[in-house]
Design goal:
Strand content: 15-25%
CATH superfamily of the largest domain: Band 7 domain
CATH topology of the largest domain: Tetrahydropterin Synthase, Chain A
Keywords: Hydrolase, Membrane, Protease, Transmembrane, Transmembrane helix
Oligomer: single chain
InterPro entries: Band_7 (IPR001107), Band_7/SPFH_dom_sf (IPR036013)
Membrane topology: Single-pass membrane protein
CATH architecture of the largest domain: 2-Layer Sandwich
Low-confidence stretches: none
CATH class of the largest domain: Alpha Beta
Largest sheet: 4 strands, antiparallel
Subcellular location: Membrane
Number of strands: 10
Protein name: Regulator of protease activity HflC (Stomatin/prohibitin superfamily)
Mean pLDDT: 83
Distance between the termini: 97 Å
Order of helices and strands: EHHEEEEEEEEHHHEHH
Amino acid sequence: MKEKELTSASGYAFIGVGFALWILGGMMASAQTGLLAGLLFFLGSIMFVGLTVINPNEAAVSTFFGEYVGTMKQNGLRWVNPLYRRRKISLRARNLNGQKLKVNDKMGNPIEIAAVVVWNVEDTAQAVFEVDDYQKFVEIQSEAAVRKLAGMYSYDNIEDEEADITLRDGSGKINDMLEHELNERLVRAGVKVIEARISHLAYSPEIAGAMLQRQQASAVVAARKQIVDGAVGMVEMALAKLSEKEIVHLDEERKAAMVSNLLVVLCGEKSVSPVVNAGTLYN
């Protein structure tokens, strides 16, 4: 069922008509014409029953004996058929701060994840008639979407080195995919997701310590690898410069000793104490 607009009249004129009928009914009652007075009072009351106030970013879904007749979105004091049943719905943007969920990522690691969803009602007819409670529907489907997304990707690329996208991805791809997944799930309820973001992501407490040690070890290995790569480059440059400037001629054994000493100096975690050779190079 799709939304359709219901045209309504300004309510201010009908307020005047209602009061006029009441005043006229009171005059008839004083003239002892009770039946006509009662009819006028009844008609005046009907004028007021048909009044409704529509606030900004608000809509009123109207039905007539179970049949959907349209949605009023004009702001202000409006008047429609008094027999219409009206249900007001907010069209404002809303925040859903999801609870922390304990799920397994792609690699089977237990993690904690939560998301914040900004949404609003776009189709009032679908929101009212297609689902039982559209707000509860948004909450449940948001949780399901987060669980599905968490199971499709690993926490980071330490466990899955071939992964292009991880849950910790900082480029926003995970948030974009979450938003797309939510829009597909919530279109039935006439709800549009404006923004969806992961608000909490962490390993579960039972494995958090072990994973932290693993991340620290990986960081140390990566740092040492970069140091070794730099040291090898510096040694290579030093040998090339010595050969180019013809400062000293070294045989293969002396080159190996020099490379060993330079690598110790450059790759060592602590500062080294140099030993100065005051004699000949070959003694």
